[in-house]
From TrEMBL:
PANTHER family according to UniProt: HTH-TYPE TRANSCRIPTIONAL REGULATOR, HTH-TYPE TRANSCRIPTIONAL REGULATOR PTXR
Assigned keywords, A-Z: Transcription, Transcription regulation
Source lineage: Bacteria, Pseudomonadati, Pseudomonadota, Alphaproteobacteria, Hyphomicrobiales
UniProt family annotation: Belongs to the LysR transcriptional regulatory family.
Native source organism of the sequence: Bosea eneae
Designated name of the protein: LysR family transcriptional regulator
Amino acid sequence: MDRFTQIEVFVKTAELRSLSRAAEALGMSNAAVSRHLAALEERLSTRLVERNTRRLWLTEAWSAPLEADSVTIGN
């Protein structure tokens, strides 16, 4: 899988706090978004998001750096 796409999926999922909304925004299926996230998590050997059927949240290790980067680039 393409690393850029995996990162793009992670950032969009984190931004929208939803796999299904990220999938819709990126023009992908929910399954494709889930596969990209799983591949990135495997590549980094860490969990990026925790999710259940109703909610998605960033793991503590990733929420602060992602939010800091958003502030830095003006989002």
